[in-house]
Structures are given as C-alpha cells and as structure tokens.
Please model this.
Amino acid sequence: MLLTSAGISNASIHNALVELLGKPVAESSALFVPTAIYGIRNGADIIRRVICGTLGDPFCEMGWKSIGVLELTALPSIKKELWVPMLQETDALLVGGGDCQYLCYWMQQSGLADLLPALLHKMVYVGLSAGSMIMTRFGTTYGNHTLPAESDKSLGLVDFAIHPHMDHEWFPENSLASLEKLAATLPVPSYAIDDQTAIKVTDGGVEVVSEGHWKLFNP
Model:
C-alpha cells in the first residue's frame, strides 16, 4: 500500500509508487474509486476535477497506461463477474479522499473489503486522505449522509492511524498540537503527515516517504 495525504505530490512518493508497481506508471493500469468524495459537499465537481487533474496533486491524471472508474455504490447491483476481473487485472487501485465512514460502508456493502487482502498480493493500493485512513485503525466522518450510526469508519488492515493534511491552511484543526492531542486518545501508533508525505506498507514493514514534515506518536 501507498497511503498518501494528498496524492503523488513529489518525486520521492512517485518513486515509491514505481517501486511498488515494479514498472513505470506509463506501463501500468489503474482504477479510481471516487466514492468517498460523494460524502462531502460539492462531491460531483470534486470528482470531475480529480479525474481531470485540475485539483490537487497528481493522482488520476499522471500518465497511466489506462485508467477506469470503479464506483462502489453501483457494485451491489451488478454481477461480480463484471467487476471482479477488472480488479484482478489492474495494477493500482486509486482510492480518493472524502468521508471515511461513507467509504468504509460502501467498501463493505460492495464486497470489495473482503476481496482486498487477496488483491493486495498483486495490486498496489494507493490511498489519498480518507482513502488512506480507511485502511488503518482510525477514520473520521463529516456527517453528510444517513448511514447507520454504528457504521465503521475504517477497515483496520494496518495497525496504526494516519492523520493527513498536517498544518494545512485549509484545515486549521490539523495543527501538530491538535493532532498530538488526538493521537493521545488512540490505542495505536499515529502518523501525522503533511501533503508531501506518504506511508509505504509492504510485507517488510512500514516506511515513511517524505519531502515534507511528519511525526510518529506512540500510544
């Protein structure tokens, strides 16, 4: 997994992605999951801009050999043989940011959450913000949906938490001091990362890839 705060924002993160893929981006296929973005205001327009590459750092529009869109809310209504083979054949799954709880709910409802452990043996999972947080032991919710109150906010596939967008001007609540207080309430290690930082997770362990700022808080 390559768990980013804001996408492929610098050369170091790009190199980490290529290393995980085992080949250049231009020779790799990708599927983009926009579902979490529908959980926030103006989601449809944000999805368009992320796909076109006019919002944020490179993610969808970065020279992939091919790229498709996998909308999780549609999957329960179609036969698995129509979408599971696509996943099995793709090199990278790009999971966008937005609302963790909404994304987690549809990961589970679609069946993708159950498939992920096996898929990760041959596919690179690339998360952006909520798309990264969902794989950890901590998520957030914006409350712009009507999901059951007990819905999960993350899948817990890695045993730590990620707090993205550290010290970002758009998110004043994400100051280092605030994130340190939040981390102190969690029973697992927490990585506070800025938009120039990502966490690479492989069988060999966890590695921070950064041209910016980050801090690890232990419980």
Observations:
- The longest strand covers residues 197-202.
- The chain has a mean pLDDT of 94.
- The domain at 2-217 is CATH 3.40.50.880 (Rossmann fold).
- Residues 7 and 59 are 5 Å apart (CA to CA).
